[in-house]
Aromatic hydrocarbon degradation protein
Amino acid sequence: MIKKVIVGICLLFATGTFAQEGTASPYSFYGIGDIRFKGNTENRSMGGLGVFTDSLHINLQNPAGYGQLKFTTFTLSGSYNTSDLRTNSGDGKARRTAVDYLALGLPITKKLGVGFGLLPYSSVGYKIQNIETSEETSITKSKQFFGTGGVNRAFLGAGYKINSNLSVGVNLDYNFGEIETTSYEFWNTIQYGSRELNTSIIRGLSFNTGAMWNKKVTEKLSVYASLVYTPESTLRLSNVRNIAIVQERTNSNPIVIGDPQEIDVADTRLKLPSKFAFGAGIGEANKWLLGAEYTFQNTSNFANRFQDISTGTYENSSKLSVGGYFIPDYDSFTSYMNRMTYRAGFRHENTGLVIADKSINDTALTLGLGFPISGSFSNVNLGFEYGKRGTKALNLVEENYLNVILSFSLNDQWFVRRKYN
């Protein structure tokens, strides 16, 4: 069945992945936008914990997990986000729907597995307005900022099971995308305003390596460990800037007056910072797991696309994830709810972004449910993520958000040699 489903779903969702606006956060104004979570719905529902993998799910956080696959696994995920944006002077709401990932894992031999797919790496999607009025002169200055686009990532990886305890793997990523930002400025004493349009075409390669280890310590209990390292890599940005005179209109986009002028802007390079993640857990296979994971990223060397239009700076980022799952009775024939997987987790992240000398943090609680599909090894996973990012201090923005994530993990056996003709 999975062979018939894959082609149709890929064609339906691949185009949407490239074009979607996956965030409404004003913090996506900085750098190359919001860095999206690279992991499946199952991991995300456990606070982002990626220390555990099995033969039925693709672990997008650690390529060593490909070596554990026993079935061809196709997975697809989408999410719905609603955010309350609050400042000391006002508030607003935003909603977004996005495709989170599309991936296929193939067990080539009993020890070797490969995986490839497509996912968004970063998203830009903001609408900001700033109005300043001078009490002395009654002159009002209005600025509006809009941003769309982001960076997508196509990946190809392989994982190898060295022995029953240890697996290693590597992913090669091709990053591509386009970011478009527009800013308007109007003065109440001047008939026309100005528009600045910046477009960046982004390309670049990156890779990461990983290892996963597990060992039985008692008849039932096993311990797990995971290690992922991502070296520093470079993105190439082809930049174009366009300046125009515009006339402001009520309830409509400003209209361009005259011919826009293209301004020479140098092409730039951005370094994606190196990242290191280590996690450990303990549990009983097909029963329960409890673990924690720490991630460190050298974002202090990261820079904005254009240093002359962004004021944010960066420090090293870090993230702590704690979570786990519980299955009441994996083999139950009498109760469907006993065969379901129940997941929960917590994460706290220093995003690395610093505005007005204030670090922007992101904290969330997560819950998840795994629904097995009767008569197969496939499953449907539903996740919930409720969190807060930023602060209202220093006239910044506080985001309270809820993400609802839905994914499908479809499993089948390919490349099985026939015993009978």
About this structure: Confidence is low (pLDDT under 50) at residues 1-19.
